[in-house]
């Protein structure tokens, strides 16, 4: 492309919400044959909300929300925010947790004060919240509660994220949290397929939820229960198979994959770390801008404006 057409392409991009960080990004975007997309915050809006609670024997719905919110108070995760918001909407007290520890891509553990202790000798319980594997790793027995397992499965099939809760080593119940799919996602995926680009959705979420969301937006392939560090490994594997790969993501955990990809596209509504790791910023978060980014690149290389 001539310097003039690069300038024109960059300017047209900026006006339509596509910020190219380099001339190279503009020139190569149309060569991409595979696009890897993050689910939460990229294909979905990224503002999950609590929709349902299923309590195990001996626990109430209120106890579950209260306990989960207290334990999650120090977490920055969107799921944590959904739980804390639900507790405050319902006017429930949020206790101050201590010894908070986060297990990226799995959940958190924390100690939560409970009544019955004295000032000198406060009582607290250990709370574990996260995906099913985290509770399995912590040796929490969830087999006794068939009804909850069934409810969780039903919710997951509807595309909800299921968060599991354990208190003092006992399974306490599950929370169903829903994140809306962006209205633009389905159209953008279809437009990419028309350009013979294949699509792959990655998520740390469970299989059931991931496949429901993946089917709804129409991506070619879904990989669920992906650990944050594995996103970049998957991009690299595709490159080693000879693909020219773009990655679209919004989170801190997407940054290594954005950097590894031949073309990294960050959703502008996402984290600064993702934006800094990317070659292109999609200002609005509308995924159709990714299609524009590719079309502008093709037009630039043909010197067509
Ligand atoms: P995604 O790839 O969808 O952005 P993450 O990798 O952040 O998801 O997390 C993967 C899964 O781990 C979540 O779907 C959830 O089940 C669990 N998880 C992670 N962090 C938390 C948290 N703070 N509270 C509860 N569950 C969590
Ligand atoms: Mg995300």
Account of the protein in words:
The protein is an alpha/beta fold. It has two domains: 3-45 and 181-301, 3-Layer(aba) Sandwich (Rossmann fold), CATH 3.40.50.1000; 49-178, Calcium-transporting ATPase, cytoplasmic domain N (3-Layer(aba) Sandwich). It is 42% helix and 24% strand. It is built from 13 helices and 13 strands. The chain has helices spanning 3-15, 23-28, 39-43, 61-72, 78-89, 132-137, 146-157, 183-194, 207-217, 228-240, 255-260, 272-277, 288-301, and strands at 18-20, 34-38, 49-55, 98-103, 107-114, 123-130, 161-167, 170-178, 198-202, 221-223, 245-249, 263-267, 280-282. The protein has a seven-stranded mixed beta sheet with strand order 1-13-12-11-2-9-10, sandwiched between helices. Strand 5 (107-114) and strand 6 (123-130) form a beta hairpin. It starts with a helix and ends with a helix. The model has no long low-confidence stretch (mean pLDDT 93).
């Amino acid at each position: 492309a001539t310097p003039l057409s690069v300038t024109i392409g960059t300017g047209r991009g900026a006006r339509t919400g596509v910020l190219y960080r380099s001339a190279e990004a503009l020139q190569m975007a149309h060569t991409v044959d595979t696009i890897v997309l993050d689910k939460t915050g990229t294909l979905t809006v990224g503002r999950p909300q609590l929709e349902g609670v299923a309590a195990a024997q001996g626990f109430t719905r209120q106890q579950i929300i209260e306990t989960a919110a207290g334990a999650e108070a120090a977490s920055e995760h969107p799921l944590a925010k959904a739980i804390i918001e639900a507790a405050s909407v319902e006017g429930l007290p949020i206790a101050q947790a201590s010894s908070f520890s986060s297990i990226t891509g799995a959940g958190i553990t924390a100690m939560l004060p409970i009544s019955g202790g004295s000032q000198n000798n406060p009582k607290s319980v250990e709370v574990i919240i996260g995906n099913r594997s985290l509770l399995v790793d912590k040796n929490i027995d969830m087999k006794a509660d068939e009804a909850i397992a069934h409810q969780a499965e039903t919710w997951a099939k509807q595309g909800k994220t299921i968060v599991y809760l354990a208190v003092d080593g006992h399974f306490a119940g599950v929370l169903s949290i829903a994140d809306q799919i962006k209205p633009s996602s389905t159209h953008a995926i279809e437009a990419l397929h028309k350009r013979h680009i294949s699509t792959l959705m990655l998520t740390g979420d469970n299989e059931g939820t991931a496949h429901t969301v993946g089917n709804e937006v129409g991506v070619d392939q879904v990989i669920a229960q992906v650990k944050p560090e594995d996103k970049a490994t998957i991009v690299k594997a595709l490159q080693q198979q000879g693909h020219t790969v773009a990655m679209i993501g919004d989170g801190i955990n997407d940054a290594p994959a954005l950097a590894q990809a031949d073309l990294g596209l960050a959703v502008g509504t996402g984290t600064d770390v993702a934006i800094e790791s990317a070659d292109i910023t999609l200002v609005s978060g509308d995924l159709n801008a990714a299609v524009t980014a590719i079309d502008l690149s093709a037009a630039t290389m043909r010197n067509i404006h």
